[in-house]
UniProtKB/TrEMBL annotation:
Protein name: methylated diphthine methylhydrolase
Pfam families in alphabetical order: WD40
Keywords: Hydrolase, Repeat, WD repeat
Source organism (scientific name): Sphaerosporella brunnea
Catalytic activity: diphthine methyl ester-[translation elongation factor 2] + H2O = diphthine-[translation elongation factor 2] + methanol + H(+)
Amino acid sequence: MPSKAVDIPRNRVTEPFQYAAPKLVMEAPSMQPWTISPPSLSPLHMSPPNMELPNFSPIQDHMPLPTLSASTFTPPQSFLTLQHSEPISVIKFSRFDPTVLAVGSSFDDPDDAQPKREECSITIYRVEDVEREVRGDDKMIARGVYDVRKKLRPRLHEMTAVKSPGAVLDLAFSPHEPELLVATLATGQLIAYRVRRGRYKIKQISTHTIAPETPLYSIVFSPGEKTLAAVTAANGQVYLVQLSGFPSENDSIKPVQTIQAHSSRVLRAAFSADGKALYTGGEDGSLSEWSVKHLDKIKHKWGDGSAHESGITAILPWPAPFASDIGKKRRLLLTGDYDGKLKVLDMSSHVRPPYRRQELELHGVIWRLTPLPALPTYEEVKSLGAGSFCAATNPKVELDPELQGVLAAAGRGGGRVLIHKQKFEDVFLPKRDGSDIVDWTTSDGVKMDYEGREKEYYWYDLADIEEHGDSPVYAGDATAVIDYDPLFKDAGQQKLRRGWRLATASRDGTMCFWQVYVE
């Protein structure tokens, strides 16, 4: 069922808080599908494509930082909204097919201690790339700046839906089996589905009771062990289960190990990029790391009871699993909590519990942290053509390790776009062997320059997505996209540019979509 694009009034321009010089552009033309209309380009409401913001920085860094032309100055506006029939708890794009979007529902908030066990649903949407025409306003056309140009815009089609016996608290596509989708429910059940590629059909293949009448809040697949997944539960336990292929018999999946990870509910867990460690966060604010290299000898490596003042609701190792910069950057751990605080922990040193390097206030429960998917290098873009880009199905395409970021679903704070950047600190470290060193990296992933200075990493909160109003945002995801540049041509042809398609969903069932471009 195709959706209609809905224009939402923009918020007033807020007073600038000290920030950034940009090479990222958030674009949101105000138009209906398949229509040509002049978008408003007033600088008070929306910066034109490729327009740069004032050059300022919170850390007095001489290096230019990327930002968005619609950041907290002018909150970005979505170019497409869709009203789902039920309150949304989670949305996930397929890692192998960015045209597949799975949406799970829950009539109670996903973090409720006892979410209702009434029947909910999982819906599959097809995200179609449609080539449309856009043009500038009359003044720009008169100056010859704009003529009719091509742009990509998504169109959503509701393809199929299945009922679930309880509230859907999490969904996860397997990173190893392209058609396997797993859901965790408030009933303590884990349900496996097959989502046919190219057919957009979902079929339930098996149901497994992991913890009877105990809400299962999340599931995460190991990036290292193809059959291993971790399921978190309301009883403080984390269940390690093995999903080999497509389980077809009910209750054939049993936990191979059970970890009593915390004394309170465990809302999230995350594997390290190599799959050898598992991080868990408790509702009491405690954080733990477990060695899962050998399932018969799981070890508690360290715990930190002072990690957060409130319950931990999101965990993400950095660089993220399957990212293009694994092994090239300092290892970090991102954690979020009920108070809306994002903490950046340094995992590259041997100090445990790890040092806290940075803290950001996101003004709302940080329910999910989703890494923005890998983008191809600019040289590769020229040969790929316009459309959604999937790194998993393009293994020969060179990926850009420098373009990294996160989409945060931040409760009543709305969706947030965070960008990861780096700079050299003015702290000199001793050279390990005294030799003449040019740029090098330590075994802990810490980059140094030729003078032995450490290269630090910082996170920047660059955009607030506020169109969900007061409705809590518990779900968000992103895919990579290559689109036409609206301004620049090369030999008479429109240039291409790369970026991300962002999707956020709120508890009132509203899904909003944006596209962010890297120049």
